[in-house]
Specification:
The structure is a homodimer. The first copy, chain A, has about 500 residues and is mainly alpha-helical. Chain A has 20 helices and 3 strands. Chain A has 2 domains: about 150 residues, no CATH class; about 325 residues, Neurolysin, domain 3 (Orthogonal Bundle). The first copy, chain A, is globular, with a radius of gyration of 23 Å.
């Protein structure tokens, strides 16, 4: 195969893979937002069929040769072509080990599990979801062993979401968080809680929808390129820089819930919207790792969205849309309320300080699922016990317990640690950004453009073009150090709670 | 090729074609409902790529042999297999004449044209849309000549939507309508118009949404299998019996507009929802022709939805949801108002009596586009002139003129006559149904189940399994006679307007 042939075939692959990824991505978003409940019966077939095709796109006799030809001519190809070949080679090597019938069957299980999880969560019926969870765990364990049987299954999965992550790197990371944050959490618990009652009045959903649009405008999200829908569990899907979707979930008596979902998903969306023109419609036009993706969502949600300057900017908007509910509320009161730290049940609504504990529980649960010998039927009891141990709260039902998150229903095991890593990355990015940009001046003016432009320049535009390591160093300006994160939380909550 | 091989390959084709049709259908619906405005930039690429693949699924060396092998063994295969082979053979013969690059380019144009039409309509800017319309006409004219160069292009297109239709059959059909209906329209114009002011008060959109759900419930549409969204131009898409979508458009000061859109699209949806289990996930699981499809939508919209018994059933629902607006309105007043006959500008909001005139104008326009020598730049003036001639109304702008309908932006030329044919078919189906079912007793009870069950039995369940001719005879019980339709309209409007 000549280099020209290899490049032509690589381009063909990018076109095809992008088209299938796009179609399947839209079907997924549609399935979770607009499609009728029973539509999963047909969607499963279609997704399984298209997955089979995408599998064959990657796993075929030519792929290895295409990639090798390009990588052997590193000096004659563009950076974009070289990186595409590098990533395709990795994908090929991973997927070629999974038999196609198992890969297709797994897609079908995933589609069904997603639909069943919705119903199971609504009915708080874990038994209904358990058989699917068991299958998803089995498949993932098997796939991990196909990829690399020399490593524990869970380490293979962790590495899949965050290059280089393993229990060997994460155990000490989480140990640091637990050691540094537990005293702060305990000290906060002794202090009087701030008022939050004004956020728990009745906020009509149709006005919350307008509030979401206003938040997206403050964040500088182009409505011509990003829309919002409603789902049980908020998520972001990006297909290219002209088509990104976020979702949220409205609770009439909790305006902060959707508000911070929108800002969180908005952070993911800005990453996808910021990918460069020359990588569109290729495998590079997306976030580099889950940890980097979460660094952006948690950055906007917490470092910006839960700052006092942002509260000053958003309060007048809230008072315009919800005049009666927000009457007499000051920016300081709002800032205190949205930073109320208290052990709680629901991860997505957890405060910034106790959030990492929710992640630790899921990390420990996943270790038990894959490296331990916990049975699927025992998981809810283990979950409830950990919530008692780590956070001191009693889980009243599985809906607010083990069924709360969508991740496992989608077969995403090993994803959760990315949230904690991302949170920590974000803090270091912020302190690096502050050297170049008047962050708080910009936030104070309600114009996040300079913030997003800086992140765009250091991170977003590259997509997957650079390795995660290089991107992290680019954005953080120094090696990763989890103590920056714990120092930030300690300082913020010591001031807030006058510890 | 053995028969077993042919059947296996036919099944493979059905699976693949269903999957691609499903994915592209969802992308289309999503693109028109939830996707951001600029998403068309990426959707065009994906749709073009997937269209190319579906083209190759049909147009390849084996297709003809698969079909012929099955059709040569008619006594050894099921009716479903034989009909699939018959339809695939037709599709193969049609498509094989279109070069693939033209087919793919056409898909891309269609996607772009749909997006541009939205903007052009909003801005009432025909010049913006004109270059796309010109290309769409050119492609369709060329495709028609590829299919059958011995016939005029427009006849080839008409036959594509309604088997057997041509200007030779439609000219006398429309002549009958014009001859019989014009005196009625003129007589009605001399009578005092009924009150409609109560339908033009302020009807908040979020309550109209609830009204749509109630209408869908009255029609017996399973919400687990059919959902509703909002688009500029209402439409229905069915993917299988578990996944059908309808859309509507809300106008705050015109509650009847969305109400009858929902009932109309509901009729389409019931057809798709009623297809039998044994044809799901095959090319047979959809309506047989556009005329048959429109017979169902117009049946529910007009014969049922604009009847006095239906007005009696729906009025209490309207009075519950819109108590202030509907205060003092009687069923007779509602019946008179929703049947107000008056020459008007917008087809989708036209009354039952003048509706056929809107169709005739489009039919004449299409004849000019394809068989005549009208230039694209001249079309708006021609449109406006015909509205003056046929309906006596002055078109104020292209938004309410030539840009009002989505069909041409989707390359659907020759579709419009199906609406008039469908309206006429429906009248004959109703009189056949009345022999078996107490239609008005059922409607009076607000339970359309017996009506839909009868149509399901005679028509819906078959999908495309039977030929259109057989289905028509099955449902109408006698040969087609347009005078039944004009007699029905004459009687209804003579009584309503005391002619």
């Amino acid at each position: 195969m000549t280099l020209e042939q290899a490049i032509a075939k690589l381009n063909e692959f990018q076109t095809a893979a992008t088209a299938y990824g796009h179609a399947m991505g839209v079907m997924y978003v549609d399935g979770d937002t607009a499609a009728p409940a029973l539509s999963y019966k047909g969607r499963g077939n279609t997704m399984a069929y298209l997955s089979g095709i995408t599998y064959k796109l990657v796993v075929n006799d030519e792929t290895a040769e295409i990639c090798q030809t390009i990588l052997d001519n590193r000096d004659k190809v563009t950076d974009v072509q070289a990186r595409q070949a590098e990533l395709l080679k990795e994908e090929y090597e991973d997927m070629t080990r999974i038999p196609m019938d198992e890969f297709v069957a797994y897609q079908q299980i995933q589609t069904e599990a997603a639909a069943i999880w919705h119903e199971a969560k609504e009915k708080s019926d874990y038994a209904m979801f358990a058989p699917y969870l068991e299958k998803l765990i089995d498949y993932n364990r098997r796939f991990a062993s196909y990829k690399d049987s020399s490593k524990p299954a869970y380490d293979v999965m962790l590495d899949g979401y965050e290059k280089g992550a393993s229990t060997a790197t994460l155990d000490p990371f989480f140990a640091t968080l637990r050691e540094k944050l537990t005293p702060v959490i305990l000290a906060v618990a002794d202090k009087p809680a701030p008022r939050t009652d004004f956020l728990e009045k009745s906020f009509p959903v149709h006005i919350q929808r307008e509030f979401s649009s206003r938040l997206m405008a403050i964040m500088g999200m182009d409505p011509q390129r990003c829309t919002i829908a409603e789902t049980e569990h908020p998520f972001t899907s990006g297909f290219n820089k002209w088509d990104v979707r976020i979702t949220t979930h409205y609770h009439e008596n909790n305006v902060a819930s959707s508000m911070y979902s929108v800002i969180h998903e908005g952070g993911h969306a800005l990453y996808e919207l910021g990918t460069a023109d020359d990588i569109q419609f290729t495998s590079l036009a997306t976030g580099a790792t889950m940890g980097l993706h979460e660094s952006q969502s948690r950055f906007y949600e917490n470092l910006i969205g839960r700052s006092l300057p942002f509260c000053r900017v958003v309060l007048p908007v809230m008072q315009e849309l919800f005049p009666r509910q927000m009457e007499g509320v000051t920016a300081e009161m709002l800032y205190a309320a949205v930073n109320k730290a208290q052990p709680s049940l629901i991860r997505t609504e957890a405060d910034e300080l106790t959030y990492a504990m929710h992640i630790m529980i899921r990390y420990e649960m996943e270790k038990l699922m894959f490296n331990g010998d916990a049975k699927v039927s025992e998981l809810p009891a283990l979950w409830n016990k950990m919530y008692k141990d780590y956070l001191g709260v009693t889980v009243p039902d599985d809906r607010r317990g083990i069924l709360q998150d969508t991740h496992w229903s989608g077969g995403m095991f090993g994803y959760f640690p990315s949230y904690a890593l991302g949170s920590a990355y974000g803090v270091q990015m912020l302190s690096n950004m502050e050297k170049d940009v008047d962050v708080w001046g910009a936030v104070g003016k309600g114009d996040l453009t300079p913030v997003t432009a800086w992140l765009g320049d250091k991170l977003h535009r590259y997509g997957k073009l650079l390795t995660p390591d290089k991107l992290l160093l680019n954005a953080m300006g120094e090696p990763f150090n989890p103590v920056c994160y714990t120092d930030y939380l300690t300082k913020k909550f010591s001031e807030l709670y006058k510890l």
